[in-house]
Amino acid sequence: MEKIRKFTRDQPEVRRRQLIEATLQCLAELGHAGTSVRAVCARAGVSPGLVTHHFEGIDDLIAAAYAHVGDQVAAMLDEAMADAGGDPLARLRAFIDTSFRAPMLNSDLLQVWLAFWSLVRRDPRIRAIHADIYGGYRRSLEKLVGDIAETRKLNLDVRLAVLGFTAMMDGLWLEYCLDPTTFTAEEASRIAHGWIDTLIEGGFNHLTRKPAESPAPIG
User: Fold this and answer.
1) What was the pLDDT predicted at 171?
2) Which residue ranges does the Swiss-Prot or TrEMBL entry mark as DNA-binding (predicted)?
3) Cβ contacts of 59 within 8 Å, gap of 6 or more
4) Where in the chain are the domains?
5) What is the pTM of this model?
6) DSSP string for 154-178
7) Cβ atoms within 10 A of the Cβ of 80, count?
8) Contact 63, 125 (CB under 8 A)
9) How many other C-beta atoms can be found within 10 angstroms of the C-beta atom of residue 23?
10) So what's the pLDDT on residue 7?
């Protein structure tokens, strides 16, 4: 009886996960334009009524799928950094290594991200999820880079440094997934590790923190 209760209690989440996975498959193969309630249900082998039971519609389902993928990617990166130990430099290098290995380097994942990115500007829910995913991504990196800068006594504008780092990482990942014949994953990793080498050698003098402005005189 306890097993039956547990199955009944877990079933809604299992169904939601099934629909989200089917949505991701549709986005990877058909793009946003081809992803509909009918296509998702056909892929999941369920009736359309199941979607409306768990989600408000296809837009709600796609938003849930975006949040799901963001959580999965964050979990992979967090696990890799945790395995690297407490040294922020080792954790940042683990972040790079994981970013340029399977399952992160995946053409299907690229298709899914492209579908989501195409919706960021016109769909407020997707925009909010995007801001949450990338906000967490940058905060994690700012903590690592900030700790490295503090340990090595670097006068660094951490925010600007991380913006440059994330742009480089996103660009390398995107270019590799679009055309892996241009360069290898190992070369992409070497480029990114070179960024870290430049950082710890104090090579980002153009990104130093500006001195705090003096308060305006009173009276």
Assistant:
1) 95
2) 36-55
3) 123, 125
4) 58-207
5) 0.84
6) ----HHHHHHHHHHHHHHHHHHHHH
7) 19
8) yes
9) 27
10) 38
Which of 118, 204, 143 minimizes the C-alpha distance to 168? 204
Q: Residue with structure tokens 């249900």?
A: 41
Question: Of the CATH numbers 3.60.20.10, 1.10.357.10, 3.40.109.10, 1.10.238.10, which one belongs to the domain with range 58-207?
Answer: 1.10.357.10
Average pLDDT, the chain: 88
The answer to whether the beta carbons of residues 3 and 30 sit under 8 Å apart is: no
Q: Name residues of the chain where pLDDT drops below 70.
A: 1-10, 210-219
CA 137 – CA 60 distance, rounded (Å): 23
CB atoms within 10 A of CB 174: 13
Residues in the chain: 219
47 secondary structure, DSSP code: -
Q: Please return the burial class of 211, using the count of CB atoms within 10 Å of its CB with bins 0-12, 13-18 and 19+.
A: exposed
Q: How many CA atoms lie within 13 A of 145 on its CB side?
A: 27
pLDDT at 211: 60
Residue 110, Cβ density class (10 Å: 0-12 exposed, 13-18 middle, ≥19 buried): middle
Contact 73, 113 (CB under 8 A): no
State the pLDDT at residue 210. 64
H/E segment holding residue 105: none
Q: Cα angle at 184 between 178 and 189, to 5 degrees? A: 105
Distance CA 107, CA 13 (A): 27
CA-closest candidate to residue 27, choices 55, 69, 57: 69
